[in-house]
Amino acid sequence: MGCTWIRxxxxxxxxxxxWTQSADRLxxxxxxxxxxxxxxxxxxxxEAMRAGDxxxxxxxxTRGLERDAPSNMDRSAxxxxxxxxxxxxxxxxxxxxxxxxxxxxxxxxxxxxxxRAYAYWxxxxxxxxxxxxxxxxxxxxxSRQVASIRAMINEAVLQPRISTEDRQ
Length: 168
Description:
8 helices, single chain, mainly alpha, Serine Threonine Protein Phosphatase 5, Tetratricopeptide repeat, disordered N terminus
């Protein structure tokens, strides 16, 4: 599996910008979670990540968490974005820490479950990845990202079995 494909999936896992976010949007089945309002660094960080510039996105999002005084919902979304970005640059351990923190703030954040499932997949921790992808699917059953990660887990876990029979 190519690095470009994995980075592309990571871009899909990052929350977008463009609309305002109410407190209940994070747990709804919308396919885009949004950082709105005065959080210019958080919004710029999300945009950088979506453009594939994960290092810049990490820096901007970290600065936004420190300076923008985001709401709990925006903080949860931003932490989930950091999780996706760290997975994309190959640091699943750090990614999992950010997803755990995001879920500690809002346990209904399907993106954090989805992003953590991806980080677990990167580590070969398929049982944990399956648990998280099931949790994400329970919240957002129509997500393409969740379906993609589920397929990756299945591909890794479901090894083909070839049996030979003596047919004489």
